[in-house]
């Protein structure tokens, strides 16, 4: 090499250029020939191994469809906005800012800010109305308030003032506007029950039911799912709302010809910096266009953020699972051809040609899978979208979203397939021809390589460490640590599979031989000779079992613990409910006067926002809380007080704290806790009691009076009732009769733990996330089980032919396959359950203080689904793919 360089240096530059050009043309021809050879090998291999590649296409195509579907739903959520219905007739809406922020400096980093949406409506001071009305370009500014109410027959509606009807473009169809506090105008939808001007209607809003005169019927063309409206005079509506100095929002009607941007600027110029409500630091926003819907559904964007966080967590798992499945199926397909690749290397194929051929094969397979998966991503994404869409937050489908989602899933599959396939074949392509000739007939390696072993041990240690960290954390940090532990352990099982399979065979091999006879002996010997194959077979089963068990068991574990604590805290024997409109504070006082009632407590539900740190990062946690009255509380609710006294839970400056939360915040009796109420008001109430049943009744208990002024509607969801001597034979009937003045919709029944549980039964949104997390991803993982096992079975055709040629009977082969399927299924179930038990135990201990719980029926469904998938992936290809020569009456 040195001699050639020195000679070239002595040649004149023009001659050196001619020689260099000639030398360059020769490698170019060699490269072109190499490409043609690689292309030829790829085409021939695709045709020869089409069944194996078909199994790979199914698994990778499903991965592309699932990734694309999640991209579809996430994209739809990102552009989703609350619909504009109530303010369809307003050109702009002025409302208080519904976001709260918290800034803190992480460990060794720059300050960061966390934000969260407030769950209750933040209101404006009424004085803001005059400022808005005087802005340039404003033709009319209308104060808008609303109150929940119910009719005499139990239907729910929204009470509004008649001047605010213009904001929705309501117009009188019959009658006239309300003239005094005893008259109302009905929405046409509500009047469809047979009401007309001059009729009487019973309505319950702020207190006992009252009869009103229908003065008119109004109609609007806004449509949608908005509840029907009842319009009062403005003074009457203000009295019913219960906050005369504040208003929910201000609707603005612009003068003709004023554009939205100019209106926004003019109104913003006259607004105060803050909302003006005492104790609140909320800013003021001017909303135009599609933003107006945010003033109607104040927590819609907060719910969107929660769903995005959950989808992001599930989506990360989906991506990891998809990449694991792609790597597993491609590696298995390449590994089954190791003898063929070694023979090609021995007869003169260069490493570059083999790598190029394998890459071309994987690329073409990935292209087909990406195409199929991209097409399937759209209907799957639409199905997931239908589960998540709600009235307050419909999920749009812009024109660009379906192709973008399909392209996302397809590209990820296409880009990952080629390097994975080339990486899987590196051990063969790097061999020298003489060594490759021996490798073509060599036995399968008995264990994983050094790198795989080290990586598997590291991941196993990381998973167990993450589970240990989860036991010391709480809230979201514990859930994240547990999820990380589960995924780390699953990947560790995939890497250490051959070693784990040898352990499994050491335990199950002897029983298999004894129980199975000759087929059992064959099954045990085949598994022992191919531990890598056995590991590749049960790895997707471990993935299914571990993932689905973690998803299905986490919710029931928390629900069971919370239900037990709520039931233990409940002392009431009856409960009164008021339907969708709830019950006013006076209902509890009315019930206390019923003979035989020892105590009655109204329960007001709300949410507070706690600013804290997790792992050094600033976080804002929304925590559901209960507001109760101290009077008679011990007779209806006992949260297990360990310090202090709930009788001191009075006024607006007191709070009771759960023991675990008090420990995490390092507070005790007499200390103050910094919180934000549901509407963003900063408070620092004094701790008057510490209790232990925080999973059941929440981490904070407030006096009802402290929450009533900071919720969207101060209505009790339930009234807890404790009866005693003198209640009569039917105390429920006596209470029902006492509440009769509160109109229809009031029900009295036996109390249960769900009536005080801070986490009510699962909502439709929660069920949708469970369906997506378990149904969609679990189904994909089961499909991966079928594809992987089918791929393995197809690759064993030569083995089956040899067994038939040496005298193995057709029934013996079938029974051998059944026993192998049972071995793989049982090993996968046991290992998957063990993998799931580690993070689940950490999660349950840290958050619930109990052992994890999974309903036996759920686990039975998991085991049955895995067994069916394993049978479909092993027995069907074993009877069809090689059926002519393997399981038929004679072998060729």
UniProtKB/TrEMBL annotation:
Entries under InterPro entries matching the protein:
ABC3_permease_C, Macrolide_Exporter_MacB
Q: Membrane-spanning regions, if any? A: 52-79, 308-327, 365-384, 404-425, 453-471, 477-496, 534-553, 768-795, 816-845, 857-879
Q: Which GO terms describe its cellular component?
A: plasma membrane
User: Which family does the similarity line name?
Assistant: Belongs to the ABC-4 integral membrane protein family.
Task: Please tell me whether the keyword Amino-acid biosynthesis is annotated for this protein.
Answer: no
- Residue limits of the ABC3 transporter permease C-terminal domain? 314-424, 776-879
Q: What is this protein called?
A: ABC transporter permease protein
Key words, A-Z: Cell membrane, Membrane, Transmembrane, Transmembrane helix
Q: Which organism is it from?
A: Streptomyces griseus subsp. griseus (strain JCM 4626 / CBS 651.72 / NBRC 13350 / KCC S-0626 / ISP 5235)
Q: Name one GO molecular function term.
A: transmembrane transporter activity
Q: Source organism's superkingdom?
A: Bacteria
Q: Where in the cell is it found?
A: Cell membrane
Q: Where do the segments described as Disordered lie?
A: 1-31
The membrane-topology field of this record reads: Multi-pass membrane protein
